[in-house]
Amino acid sequence: QVQLVESGGGLVQPGGSLRLSCAASGFTFSSSVMGWFRQAPGKEREFVARISYSGINTYYADSVKGRFTISRDNAKNTVYLQMNSLKPEDTAVYYCNAGTSGKVPGRSWGQGTQVTVSS
């Protein structure tokens, strides 16, 4: 079955950086568009970024453009989210998603990893 396992979250000061990882198994990773979404307390889950099969094409939410970078390693079945210049409003649970289409998530989700940006 599809399994997505996120890691790399934590507590970071404003302006700091974190790198999230998502290890995938149970499906053909190299044929799947992958995405990251996030959900802050009291808010709906929102799109953050997606990456094409090959990793050549990426797309970002306006709120993270220029600060976050999504990448993938198809040999390791892993997708990454490098987050720089973090702001308190980036605080959320971050979820990996398989089968992202546009800003719409696919059916498969990881368990999420908490990112907290606070001084």
Query: H/E series, N to C?
Result: EEEEEEEEEEE
Q: Averaging pLDDT over every residue, what do you get?
A: 96
Number of strands: 11
Judging from the principal axes of the Cα atoms, what is the shape? globular
How is the biggest beta sheet arranged?
Answer: 7 strands, mixed
Quaternary status: single chain
Give the low-confidence spans. none
Short description:
This protein is mainly beta. It is 0% helix and 48% strand.
Which features would summarize this protein structure in a list?
four-stranded antiparallel sheet, seven-stranded mixed sheet, 119 residues
How would you describe this structure to a colleague?
With 119 residues, the chain is an all-beta fold. Helices cover 0% and strands 48% of the residues. Strands 2, 4, 5, 6, 9, 10 and 11 form a 7-stranded mixed β-sheet that branches. The chain has a 4-stranded antiparallel β-sheet with strand order 1-3-8-7, with no helix packed on it. Strand 4 and strand 5 form a beta hairpin. The mean pLDDT is 96.
